[in-house]
Design brief:
4 domains, Beta-Lactamase, 23% strand, Helix Hairpins, alpha+beta, elongated, 46% helix, five-stranded antiparallel β-sheet
Amino acid sequence: MSSKSFNKRTAATFFLGTAISGSWYTATSALITGQTGEIIPVVGAIVLAGLTPLAVNALRPGDDRVSGKHYMAQRLKAFDSHAIVNIVDPEGLLEQVNDRFIELTGYTRAQLIGQPVSMLYQEEFRELATKIRATLMQGKTWQGETPMRCADGRVIQTQCTVMPLFDKKGAWAGSISARTDVTHANELLAERDTSETLYELRDDIWIVDAETHCFSYMNRVAMSRTGWHSDSYSKRTLEDLAKKSGNQTVLDACRSLATAGKTMTQFDTELFGNHFQVTIKLLPIGGTAGRFLIMLHDISDIINEERMKSEFISMVSHELRSPLTSIKGSMGLLLSRAAGELPSKARALLEISHRNADRLVLIINDILDLEKIANGRLEFNLEETDIAELLRETSAANSSLEQRHGVRIHVENNDSPMQVTTDPNRVIQVLTNLLSNAAKFSKPGERITIRAEENEDELRISVTDRGPGIPASEEHKVFQRFADLSNSNRADKGGTGLGLSVCKAIVENLGGKIGFDSREGFGTTFYFTLPKKNSQVAAEEPASLLREAS
């Protein structure tokens, strides 16, 4: 053997041993602390550096110490407890793998040997395999982190050193790769980074064992709020928190998640004198009960701002309603010729003013209704009501819509009485809003249909038009306050943008549900249900309803 070949091989062997032992030292130093962390990285690095020459010698073609692939595989077994080793031939096909490679990836040797090494990479990383091969063919060693696909589809991260192989004549003979599985190390580092991030968040973060209810993590804000420290909170439970805060809503929610088989819940509650939006996620871990991830977002400032905004809007609306009502009344008298005949131009201008005064009064009334609903102050007077008669009354009361928009209102299925316990005035208010919308979006001559249907428990009332329908992309905005759809053209058609949100609040407070079916270009049906027996009106939390209506 020439000294030149010997020196090249010696240098390459030295480089490979240094790379492998260095990777071991770096990974274990980051994961292991204390006295053990000072010993294991050093000892492991020394062992790997010593074993590397043995493995490289096992690859020397033509040497009298190498009697075939079987003997080479035996020598490679020395690496099984430390590194994942594979050999690739000049065509890029896997020629040999060690036992640890088989153990970690789940492949059999028969599935690997003779297959292209690129099979170990996901499609998006195939280019990386090409770059590695180009580097090796230049006689250079490649080092870096590579993902490796396992037989079951998992992807593990490996710290990899790939060294080119040449025969005695200096011809390209393939490569040998030595890898260290750093998946767990990366996960631990990611967990550490996540923990550091969570620690600095302004929201309270708790992690609780789902079986014992003991706290396993609290960030800085949570510890400050509870008065528990990192050396003591692990001894505390959700039961302790319920006693300390005087509120066991969080405890009850966690119990409910565990028994109902759900994975997430969200609600508002008050803890330690502050209002919070609480999000709880149940994170399963293998076959165990798992952990609860509990996040508390302080919404005290939001609630105070909403209250102040609501009070301001209510005050302004009350102050505006009286003078506007007087202005509207005066203009109505003028239009009815109470002060004599008006010039045609003056009458036209007055009609415009009267319509806009009407619109302003509607906006103010809707705002005041929303404010009353949000604060639980909207009055409901429940009584036995014949819905069939109520539909006929509503149709007659809205006959002006037929004249103004040239439409026809038709009531179906109103021959037989339909008794329900509800507030008839509020139901008329909802129907008037729905009829007004239907009329605005219908062409002259079109028919608007009101229909009531009943079953054993509830009654369903619907209003159907043949207008342009609601764009599918905008259906989510329909019940929002001041919703303005792309085909609504509010400036021409009028409307407050509040009517449907008021309808939703009234129907839900009456114990029913509201919804719609629409097909763009063919029309829309708005419907709502009412329970036949309604012993009381359910009033929601003011802040919660305000946020829902926003």
